[in-house]
Amino acid sequence: MKFDIVTIFPRMFEGPTREGILGRAIERRLVDLCVHDLREYTDDRHRTVDDVAYGGGPGMVLKPAPLFRAVDASREARGIPDAVILTSPQGRRFSQAEAGRLSGLGHVVLLCGRYEGVDERVRDHVATEELSIGDYVLTGGELPALVVLDAVVRLLPGVVGDEQSVEQDSFTRGLLDYPQYTRPAEFRGIAVPAVLLSGHHAEVRRWRKRQALERTIGRRPDLLATAQLDDEERAILREVQAARQEESDDGRD
Ligand code: 9D3
After folding, report:
1. What's the CA gap between 222 and 216, in Å, rounded?
2. Which residues pair with 186 in a beta bridge?
3. Per-residue pLDDT tens digits for 24-78
4. Residue 37, helix vs strand vs coil
5. Tens digit of each residue's pLDDT (9 = 90 or more) over 109-156
6. pTM score > 0.85 for this model?
7. Protein residue with its CA nearest to atom 4 in ligand 1
8. Quick check: CB of 140 below 6 Å from ligand 1?
9. What does DSSP say about strands 190-191 and 117-118: parallel, antiparallel, or unpaired?
10. Which residue of 6, 12, 137, 147 sits with most ligand 1 atoms within 8 Å of its CB, as the best mutation to test the pocket?
11. What angle do CA 76, 81, 21 make, to 5 degrees?
């Protein structure tokens, strides 16, 4: 899969794209990533990428010309992209489903917003979509672009060694992870739950399912509404909900 990222801070991508699963995917050429310095697409001596807003007001706005030229250059060098994504606080919320959709594309351009905003003509005539990663204020679209890149790349065939772990993903299935432990069996007097040492595989599986369901109800009940549960999980869920009902009845006694 081809990615072009357009940014005024290309060095922000150096560390994250060299390390870990993402770094290996690029090394193995499963991902072809080009990071472009927006200033390379300016035509003035000062390499100006921003300007004051028409109508006045605080803050600078990213000028249209360098962004238009950067996308033109990508199109000429690497072909017509399937999506040109502007990262912005006004975007649709990025999600696991969005990551899955993008992982089916061949070529994606990510434009990183900055400052108080981006000239609206970029939204209307260059970007095919606009994505936000959540409701908190960042200083720019570079970290969001890395988040999108990371979430999409790990879904590409061959990138994560264990395809099963990708499918079992909590957000793919809609449940949070169950608690995990490794050796030693007792650490500073804190024991690993006995069931995990018992060797009873069916019991371990049921315990994990129950833990995942209890955690999801307790921490992210919103996820449960759309979770894909198997028969055993549905049965355990009814038990867990009955037990919780008991507890809240007790509380009122
Ligand atoms: C909505 C806030 N804007 C009001 C004037 C100003 C503004 C704040 C922060 C404009 C741009 C930014 C920089 N953030 C991004 O470019 C951004 C972002 C984010 O801040 N949070 C979550 N997702 C994203 S995607 C791009």
Report:
1. 8
2. 191
3. 999 999 999 999 999 999 999 999 999 999 999 999 999 999 999 999 999 999 9
4. strand
5. 999 998 679 999 999 999 999 999 999 999 999 999 999 999 999 999
6. yes
7. 116
8. yes
9. unpaired
10. 137
11. 110
